[in-house]
């Protein structure tokens, strides 16, 4: 009985993780510039990876494999913000203008729709 | 269950690789490379469970450490032009 319940719950978690992974990949493909893509792709490493890893931990039970999965999740949660921050900072340093719906720079220059640098 | 998740990850990998090939700036490509790393970690773990050999997790753990260093190295290279970047050197010139 308990085994069936664990199977059902982990199946739901892994299916939800697969949905979020697909959503993040579609976001990376469809969003218009680098800053929004960084935002969109972080869904893969937080919601997608988190739900999938929790689902696999339920399958693994109390074992070393579950601990290693927890380590992978911890590494994801620690390194993804670093990478996202470094990417956005490097893009800003390179002079790629964010696409804004309103002009907040106080100047007349329109942000380049192609993403700034071309 | 695991087969479906593996198929979803492979589809997501395809979309991410398309962005990596198209991606107008180098940062899009670096971001796509990082996402490929994350998805491959998940895929290795899922395939390990699918084949009944969860010990594949060790490979995923190693790759997740390499992923961070790889992305940061690419970003540093494209920002400074070399890996052995020196702050004093740039300030002096």
Description:
The complex is a heterodimer of chains A (118) and B (93). Chain A has 118 residues and is mostly helical. Chain A is built from three helices and no strands. With 93 residues, chain B is an all-alpha fold. Chain B contains four helices and no strands. In chain B, helix 1 (2-22) packs antiparallel against helix 2 and helix 2 (26-50) runs antiparallel to helix 3. Chains A and B meet through helix 1, helix 2 and helix 3 of A and helix 1, helix 2 and helix 3 of B.
Descriptive terms for the model:
heterodimer; A: mainly alpha; elongated; B: 93 residues; mainly alpha; 82% helix
The helix fraction of chain B, in percent, is: over 70%
- In DSSP terms, counting alpha (H) and pi (I) runs of 4 or more, how many helices of chain A? 3
Q: In terms of structural class, how would the helical and strand content of chain B be classed?
A: mainly alpha
For the record, give the distance between the C-alpha atoms at the N and C termini of chain B, rounded to a whole number: 59 Å
Low-confidence stretches of chain B: none
What is the H/E string of chain B?
HHHH
Uncertain regions of chain A: pLDDT < 50 for 5+ in a row? Answer: none
What's the number of structural domains of chain B?
A: 1
> What is the CA-atom radius of gyration of chain B, in angstroms?
17 Å
Overall average residue pLDDT of chain A? 83
